[in-house]
Amino acid sequence: MQAHFAELGALINQISGFIYPNEIELQWSILIVIYPYLTGLVAGAFILASLEKVFNVKELQPTYRLALLCALSFLIVAPMPLQAHLGHPERSLEMFLTPNGNSAMAMFGFVYMWYLMLVLLLEIWFDFRADMVRWSQEARGIKRFFYSALALGSKDISEEAVAFDHKAVYTITLIGIPSAFILHGYVGFIFGSIKANPWWSSVLIPIVFLFSAIVSGIAMILLIYYVSSLVRGQQPKMPCMDKLASFLLYALILDFSLESLDFIHRLYESEESIHILSELIVSKLFLSLTIVQILLGTILPLLLLAFGRYSRLPAELKRIIYVLSAMLIQVGIFSTRWNVVIGGQLFSKSLRGLTAYKLEIGGQEGLITAIGFLILPFLIFLLLIKILPPWEDEKETVPAAIEA
Amino acid sequence: MADKLNRRDFVRRAVESAASVVMLSVCGPMRSLGRASEEAEAEPAAYDATKHYYGMGVQIDKCIGCGRCADACKSENDVPREPFYFRTWVERYIIDSEREVHVDSPGGGIHGFPPPATEEDILRSFFVPKLCNHCDHPPCVQVCPVGATFKTQDGVVLVDQDYCVGCRYCIQACPYGARYLHPEKHAADKCTFCYHRITKGMLPACVEVCPTQARVFGEIKGRSSPLHRLMKMEEIQVLKPELNTEPKVLYTKLDGEVR
Known about the structure:
heterodimer; A: Formate dehydrogenase/DMSO reductase fold; two-stranded antiparallel ribbon; B: alpha+beta; 2 domains; four-stranded mixed beta sheet; three-stranded antiparallel beta sheet; globular
């Protein structure tokens, strides 16, 4: 407690102008930055997966299952930083049991459960059902029991049954696309609906969140596809990489246009808050917004992708450019989340001063915890691809083995 | 009389009064133990929330910036003494001849204010006591995911700290910076108009101690209340009216620069 007070006391020196006395303590820490970052990846990865299923983009076939499992891994971790951030984590169930119908936040549990249970898990189950049946028939002992349990006891892999699976997957994806939009648009709404905060309060925020989510999701799947191919000793398929890069480029252009629109709109309307927000951008957010988010995270990958996609470079070089762009984009999108969540708390609601945020290293809301929450989805992902190998080539070998 | 009191009488009276003290202290808790829960609710039988609708008037031109209100509030309401947590505080506005606005509130104004840096250049200067505005249309109540913060029938916005999950969404949603997370209770905290006092017919602590009666507490709807009289006689402004929160803290002589 005393250490906390000492930290707050030290922050007083970093304050410029006037802030309300209660504003010295910044309420939403880096953990709340991670939350929209993770849900964005979920929504983005799912929307990419649905491109293959619903819009029949054949080149993306190798990434479909990767994207689904990736989305699931991130979705499992997404509520954890929220939970860790609560003053009374033991009361969090009240959001489900006695939700306030007027609260945007109270709906989180329901949107989350809908997405997890009815969209992701169902789609993954139907997509892997036939494989799980095959694996259970092929394996022995505990493994046999395990896959049989995962398949929920179903054994039918007749053509009709598999056709039904495909149909189910198609239908769930159809429902899933608007659900993914809702999931992340909703996260944007949590911020966008706060009229007390001029940095957040914008009708565009949910839409900007959505498109940045799609950008981050595609970039993440590009990285995962590239790395997983290398680890498995295979060349990433170039048509797939090209297609991913194209979609990434389109999404990035849309995202950047929307963010620019938001920016220009604010600047042109020049409301009461414009002075303090301008000050914020050129001082406390200069590095994370101007340099990292806009220059390194958006404009540079935009140029790189356009160059890589439409020039006649050797495939090897193109891949490197794509991967580099995707990495830059990840950093850029994380900064975007940072600039929204932390940036929105760095100025006083009196619009007369700037506050400060000191990222702790240890502690419940420190850097180490944050890094843990960012690594955890990848560990879950590794576990998932062990249990449910998503590889197309192996999928084909399994039935062959059974026939033999 | 007193000199007629012999030793026997004295002992007898002493035993009697001791016994009655014991009886009272035992019966009191027993009475409340035996009381059914609905009776407990009805306990402030004298107090009927539907018969009240509270607000507070703040007369800017009467505030001298002594900070006794903020100090009394901390003592009365278990607000941490550290200068990062306030249910009420005082801001000082100094507007210079260039119409530049300088605002400060060192330690919430609890220990008063240091002399202004630019004494010659002052166009106008005044103090603004701040507190929860007990909005009629409170954004904090709207956003609370579990309904731990709520508006009572008598118009006061309260927090159920045994129910608050500590998500701090309400703190983000409050346009006035009137809320904080209590560092020990890990729940949102804010001004209650001293609900424990006003339901007993007393005044909020800040109003009670104000030496200039800059704060006027009372019924917004009651016709004979001092607050009603203030609303009748003075021009009334509220903070950030454009946000449509409909505050029930009503200011007189409020400068347009105040946010």
